[in-house]
């Protein structure tokens, strides 16, 4: 019996972290619900959403071919640098960590739901910068001149 075999995701139970796998080279036999192994899930709850038809490797238990674990998927070709960790999502957004730099490159938006502290320089660029409901690009105070002009007060 083969302990490790390749198949394709046949159906998914995302809520319970399980999937069924079809083995095309074994007369299209479909596995029972298999646990999907993820790195470090006991410490920080990683979750991955596999897709029907996606190739996966399965570890079967001896004498129990219907029981096993989905080990993961074959790595795709990539243009990452040595030492870089990168995850690219199906919509093209990604995050990357390399040589002390974390790069977030979402397709549309980053949402931070927490108090945020920046220790270091902050560079902001873009077309609209807001502070709460105030557009900081166009916000004005009456009686105050812009730039380095002095509007009153001590000289």
From TrEMBL:
A Pfam family annotated for this chain is Apex
> Which InterPro entries does this UniProt record tie to the protein?
GpV-like_apex (IPR044033), Vgr_OB-fold_dom_sf (IPR037026)
Q: Give the protein name, as stated in the record.
A: Phage baseplate protein
The organism of origin for this protein: Leptotrichia rugosa
